[in-house]
Amino acid sequence: MSVTREEVAKIASLARISMDDDALDHMVPELNNILAWVEQLGEVDTTSVEPMAAVIPLEQRLRDDVVDADPKTGGGRRDDILANAPVAEHGFFGVPKVIE
Amino acid sequence: MSNYRIHGATGEWEVVIGLEVHAQVTTNAKLFSGASTAFGAEPNTQVSLVDAAMPGMLPVPNRECIRQAVRTGMAIEAQINKWSRFDRKNYFYADLPQGYQISQLYHPIVGEGQLLIEADEKAGIPEDKVIGIERIHVEQDAGKLMHDQHPTMSYVDLNRTGVALMEIVSRPDMTSPAEAGAYIRKLRAILRYVGSCDGNMEEGSMRADVNVSVRKVGDTELGTRTETKNVNSVRFVMQAIEHEVQRQIDVIEDGKKIVQETRLFDPGTGTTRSMRSKEDAHDYRYFPDPDLLPLILDEAFLDECRASLPELPDAKRTRYENDLGLTPYNARELTAEVETFGRFETLLGVAAKTLGKPEAEVATQVANWSLSVAPGVAKSLGDEANMANATAQRQAAILAMQDKGEISGGQAKEIYEIVLKEGREPDEIAETEGLKQVSDTGAIESAVDDILANNQDKVEQYRGGKDKLFGFFVGQTMKAMQGKANPAVVNQILKDKLG
Known about the structure:
The structure holds two protein chains of two kinds.
Chain A: H1 5-14, H2 21-39, H3 78-82, E1 88-89, E2 92-96
Antiparallel strand pairs in A: 1-2
Chain B: E1 6-8, E2 11-24, H1 63-75, E3 83-84, E4 87-90, E5 100-103, E6 113-117, E7 129-140, E8 144-146, E9 153-157, E10 164-170, H2 177-194, E11 206-216, E12 226-231, H3 234-253, E13 262-266, E14 271-274, E15 287-288, E16 295-296, H4 299-307, H5 313-322, H6 328-335, H7 338-355, H8 359-381, H9 392-403, H10 409-422, H11 426-432, H12 441-454, H13 456-463, H14 469-480, H15 487-498
Parallel strand pairs in B: 12-13
Antiparallel strand pairs in B: 1-2, 2-10, 2-11, 3-16, 4-5, 4-15, 6-7, 7-10, 8-9, 11-12, 13-14
């Protein structure tokens, strides 16, 4: 598997990463090297192995439906949330106007 | 089969409709964080570090969201997937801090199900129809953008970000706006019975993406479809379909082609318009979310979900018809809304007790009262009616008096009016206000004797075969009794005396 220059340019654009020609010249072979390296895994015969999400048996933990049970993952912290915003007005984030 | 057809310049067209309904799951906290889901809070006060996508935060699914999605799946007789998985749907927009929405593309929690829409001749649905449901998956809602608060900026409120949604995807099984409307109404009823979504379309708890295509009658290939996004009422869904159908037919008959695209509905004009979108907008690059393990449901969890389901609309409607002997119309009306059947069943229980009869014997009386008499009185009073006064006990007391013949239908209404306005007890009202009909045969007999004596000629004519005059005698008697005589007793006495 490999990627073309056009594909890399498109992925960069979708990810909102600006890449000029020089950067692309660099990135295309680099990505293809990584892909080729990962592709070595395909040499292992996995026909009898179930696909797995983790190499040790783990179960997804679930949380209880309780508001603000843990302050670290609860609401009520608007100042923290807005602290890094380039613009915050009246409790909102302000962003350049986006109209559909 | 619906007979919804559009007459175009080149022939007859039919319509194929599929709906994707987004329903907000009723929970206290969000899908992956502990922030509140309450509606109407100050902007950005219900946003956690998880929702704001701060670095290093990990999503942990809310058990109740999973449970409600499973219960909803069971209510539409769907396959429940004991193994499901969350995927990332990647795109950039100002209302999506993560840069991706956590959704379930490849392995949704609920698979194939179905929903029954009932025949409704008036609406153009000639017979019952089963609409297939392809899947239900769980995903995050996005934030809210406001464009009209500042000349050059949009304001972003992330309170809704991360709230759990169920996306309920139908098969393209609907063939008229009426069927689409009936589908949404039925789905809304089921969600509200189950309690998994409040169904409040004004507050955005339920909104639909409407997929529409047209084809010539008889064609088997599907036409190219368009998707109209975020339509938030049953009426608007039907309007959007009507408009989109006509537009597509016009385009095709003009020799042009339908472009597969996303459109927006304008409630002001009832029309749809194309959303300007970049061609790569749909390149979402889905992949399994590495922050979340597959979701595995055990039997105990599924058993609890199943055991906690209430009686659902179809079962309830059937029971009302078969066990309570209600008409199909009454059964349908009473089971359409959670509030309606709730009030009906409470009143039915109390009324049966008050009247000392089995529920099945009083059900029709209670149904007519609940569906037509009581709402009629409340409506005529408008703001004067205090509905808190309308306890089941008081309504049952009125029904009991009517059942015993102590009051007439008209008097029942008058008494209920006073109950609503003043919160007094029906027995006392009937007594104090003289709202009782006379069943005392002595009083009625003497009134009848007077009337017969004063109308000898008519009595002769009646006995001579002019049956219609019976109504005249009833009228005169009621007038003499100032409308308070029990009509059944009046009829009996007149029949006896006229021989």
